[in-house]
């Protein structure tokens, strides 16, 4: 996977395993705070109804277009009083037979509670002293679009071989604020608010690693990058309370045409 340096961005070049890995901060050259250059866009769309299943042999209740790679995933909508959870199962696009591209929607219908998305291993490294990403195969950016109402939380996790579930303490809080936001509800959380015009924020750390409690003391003490072979199934959980549209972009890769 080729990493491209972007002009006017803040770029750190690291020598890792004989290769160059670029890590960069947001670039205001684009006007939306995301980097410039090639990217893959994924839209998360909240729906207040289950999308119909047209295949009676499909036990997962997926619509016929579930794998049409439309660059969007439908999730449960919820409302101010009810949280609706959708789990987006993550698959290594380099080893998953169904994946024909680096980034690809495998199951677009999450209104049944589950969706699926394939992406390459990020190999993300985080400096635990500063909390900053020091290297990654690509960066991940998020922004809120759609009507100015609703909120959601998004976070990563994994299942181990014994079926135990491990959730990241680093939660992305997607919120609507007319005035200055009060800040995240927890020091490990990242607050992303609606802006006018909409602007992206870097969530590479939150969506490519899992920062979890390994010893049961309710404090995070271990971090693993997506698709670390020690664990089984990685995922993103999306807890929605009426947020209709969130957009995620992945930068610094060459799309497989």
The gyration radius over C-alpha positions equals 18 Å
Could you say which structural class the secondary elements and strand pairing correspond to?
mainly beta
* Strand segment tally: 20
What is the helix fraction of residues, given as a range? under 10%
Give unreliable regions as ranges: 1-25, 53-58, 62-68, 253-257
| Topology as a string of helices (H) and strands (E) | EEEEEEEEEEEEEEEEHEEEE
Quick check: average pLDDT?
82
Largest sheet, in brief, is: 8 strands, mixed
- The coarse overall form would be globular
Distance between the termini: 14 Å
Amount of beta strand: 35-45%
Continuous helix count: 1
User: How many domains, as an integer?
Assistant: 1
Short description:
By secondary structure, the protein is mostly beta strands.
SSE topology:
Elements: E1 11-16, E2 19-24, E3 39-47, E4 72-76, E5 84-92, E6 104-107, E7 109-110, E8 114-119, E9 125-127, E10 132-135, E11 139-145, E12 151-159, E13 165-167, E14 172-175, E15 190-193, E16 201-202, H1 204-208, E17 209-212, E18 222-225, E19 233-241, E20 245-251
Parallel strand pairs: 3-4, 4-7, 5-8, 14-15
Antiparallel strand pairs: 1-2, 3-20, 5-19, 6-8, 9-10, 11-16, 11-20, 12-13, 12-14, 12-19, 17-18
